[in-house]
Structures are given as structure tokens and as C-alpha cells.
Specification:
Blueprint (H helix, E strand, L loop, with lengths): L2 H8 L3 H8 L3 H11 L4 E5 L7 H7 L2 E6 L2 H13 L5 E5 L12 E6 L9 H11 E12 L29 E2 L2 E2 L10 H10 L3 E8 L5 E7 L8
Parallel strand pairs: 1-2, 1-4, 2-3, 4-5
Antiparallel strand pairs: 5-9, 6-7, 8-9
Bound molecules: S-adenosylmethionine.
Length: 227
């Protein structure tokens, strides 16, 4: 089943799932208000809009994409209900964004690097669409960092992720990471992955919660050799 198909099946229940596991989301929203002020913002893997309304208030221009048509449909309903009409919403993959180089000041991707099959591929694509000096904000679930609802298994070390981004399949004690999680990150592993994709990491903080969240900010360097 493709990533889009998996998330299409989940879309109808996703708000309930986010309510249960996203106990750290209010803290993410507070940091977003601190870190985003105006500019051209691209939200990738927007889901049903857990942060899209916040970003719509903070950005000068907002484009929100998600690979799942069902998620995008629900996101459109959320925006319409809130009377927000100036967000561009599209179905699109993090691995191949239909966006020109250096088009955005900020790329925001929440709760998604840990479920992606190829997170490094996504990060390299985020770097491509950011202007030099542009900001990546990537709050990511840290299933290897403790919390009250995390699977037992090994922590992810940077070496567990191939340079090509391809899938950091992590074998836990009971087998593959349970559920939809592809990578059991801890904060160091997440930071290493972002840095390896060619970003200068600015800050990394672990937000506590039912599943902790790694709130990582990083900048595209002024000059990078795109791979
Ligand atoms: C756990 S949800 C996160 C949604 C929301 N950002 C949040 O923080 O609650 C993961 C989202 O990533 C999307 N997704 C999965 N793979 C993707 C990809 N390759 N490109 C873009 N979106 C993807 C899914 O459709 C889903 O909406």
C-alpha cells in the first residue's frame, strides 16, 4: 500500500489520533508563534490542519500540501469552516514538491519525518525549495525518547539511516517499529538526520508529552551543493 493510500484510510480518524498522541502540540504552537513572522511558508504533510490555521495567521503567504487526497479534503473543509480562504492547498509528495527552487522562506513539517519511508529524501527536497538562509521547522515524534506510550526498541543512531534516505527500518525487540512509525528517533538522531541533509541546525528541543516531540529548527546554508 502506498503512503497516500495508508493515510487516506486514516484520514477520517486522524483528528482523534492527534488528540490522543499530540499532547505536545500546544507547546509546538507556542514555538511557532515565536519562530514564524510573515514570509512565504510551505507546510508539508499538513494532515487535517493541526497547525495550518496557526500558520495562516503567522505567514504572509501559505501553501499546504499533503500526499493523501483524503487528508487534503478534510484540510480544505477545516479551512472553509474557519473562513480562511487564502491558503493554497494541494496534494503533493514531500519527495517531489511541485515548487520552484528557493521559493520559500520557511518550510514547516510536523509529525511526519518519523512516518515517512524516505525522510532524508524529503529533507533534501525541503532544502531545495528554501531560499538560502531559509528556515526549516520540523517537530517530529521521538518514539525512542521515553514518554508514556512508546514502543520498546533500540534508539535510532544516525548510522541507522542511509545517506540516500532510504528507509531507516528500525527493528525493535518485537520486530519492526509498530504502527505507522518508520523511524524511532531520539533527539540526537533527528538532529543528525537534518544536518546530514545539508542544514545548519539552529536549535533542538525535546517537548515532553505522551510521545515526546523533537522541535528542530535549521537553516539552509547560503551556499550548498544540491545533490
Ligand atoms: C502523522 S500525520 C501529521 C499531520 C499533521 N502535520 C500533524 O502534525 O498532526 C502525517 C501526515 O503526513 C502525510 N504524509 C505521509 N507521507 C507523506 C509524503 N511522502 N509527502 C507528503 N505528506 C506525507 C500523511 O498523509 C499525513 O497527513
Amino acid at each position: 500500500m502506498s503512503e497516500a493510500q495508508i493515510w487516506d484510510e486514516i484520514a477520517a480518524h486522524y483528528d482523534d489520533i492527534a488528540r490522543v498522541f499530540g499532547t505536545g502540540y500546544p507547546a509546538v504552537r507556542a514555538r511557532l508563534a515565536r519562530d514564524v513572522s510573515g514570509g512565504r511558508v510551505l507546510e508539508v504533510a499538513a494532515g487535517t490542519g493541526q497547525f495550518t490555521l496557526d500558520l495562516a495567521r503567522l505567514a504572509d503567504r501559505l501553501v499546504a500540501v499533503d500526499i493523501s487526497p483524503a487528508m487534503v479534503g478534510r484540510l480544505r473543509d477545516v479551512l472553509a469552516s474557519a473562513g480562511v480562504g487564502d491558503v493554497e492547498v494541494a496534494v503533493g509528495s514531500a519527495y517531489e514538491l511541485a515548487v520552484r527552487d528557493q521559493a520559500f522562506d520557511v518550510v514547516f513539517c510536523a509529525g511526519a519525518l518519523q512516518i515517512m519511508e524516505a525522510p532524508t529524501r524529503a529533507l533534501v527536497e525541503f532544502r531545495r525549495v528554501l531560499r538560502p538562509g531559509g528556515l526549516l521547522i520540523a517537530p517530529t515524534f521521538l518514539h525512542a525518547s521515553g514518554g508514556s506510550d512508546v514502543p520498546s526498541g533500540p534508539r535510532v543512531s544516525p548510522s541507522a539511516t542511509s545517506a540516500a534516505g532510504g528507509p531507516a527500518a528500525v527493528e525493535g525487540r518485537g520486530g519492526r517499529a509498530p504502527g505507522l512509525t518508520q523511524t524511532l528517533f531520539d533527539l540526537d538522531g533527528l538532529v543528525a538526520l537534518v544536518a546530514a541533509a545539508g542544514f545548519d541546525v539552529v536549535d533542538a528541543e525535546e517537548i515532553p508529552g505522551r510521545v515526546p516531540i523533537g522541535y528542530v529548527t535549521a537553516r539552509r546554508p547560503d551556499a550548498v551543493a544540491l545533490t
